[in-house]
Amino acid sequence: MEVQILAADAPPELVARIDADARERNVTFQEAVVSALAKRFKVRRTASVRSYVDTPQGTTIHVKVSVDLRTQLRLQAAERNGTLRGVILDELAKHYGLPAVSTDRRSRSR
User: Fold this and answer.
1) What DSSP line would sit under 27-94, residue for residue?
2) Which pLDDT score is estimated for 12?
3) Per-domain residue ranges for the chain?
4) Given CA atoms 75, 77, 78, 79 in this order, what sign does their dihedral have?
5) How far from chain centre, in Å, is Cα 35?
6) What is the maximal distance between C-alpha atoms in the chain?
7) 2-95: which CATH topology?
8) What's this model's pTM, rounded to 2 decimal places?
9) Hey, how many other C-beta atoms are within 10 angstroms of the C-beta on 55?
């Protein structure tokens, strides 16, 4: 079973780096994201066989993950007193050699 998590307001340089990695490896953007997170949290998974498709990426990363990976992300968020969004973006930033992303809650402006 897979669940979807949205990581909004991703840094544009992170999105660009993920897209470049996906293109280079000829995998989907989703596969690049999930494979990096699964590797970091040592969660076994079956890789997608879909090829890279050039689609415009915004700043919201849609992540479809297994329940096991979501559990690991939640545990990490609890340990850091942060959010799932923050943990996902921070771990991806580390994976791609970019500056850390805050795992704290974002302030909401109205």
Assistant:
1) --HHHHHHHHHHHHTT---PPP-PPP------S-EEEEEEHHHHHHHHHHHHHHT--HHHHHHHHHHH
2) 94
3) 2-95
4) positive
5) 9
6) 42
7) Arc Repressor Mutant (1.10.1220)
8) 0.89
9) 8
**Dist. CA 28–CA 83, nearest whole Å:** 25
At 105, list the tokens: 């809650």
* Type of residue found at 96: Y
pLDDT of residue 107: 56
DSSP state at residue 4 = E
Q: pLDDT per residue over 86-106, tens digit each?
A: 999 999 999 999 999 888 876
- Phi-psi category of 26—alpha, beta or left, where left has phi over 0 and alpha has psi -120 to 50? left
- Tokens 């849609």 sit on residue: 62
- Contact yes or no for 25/51 (Cβ under 8 A): no
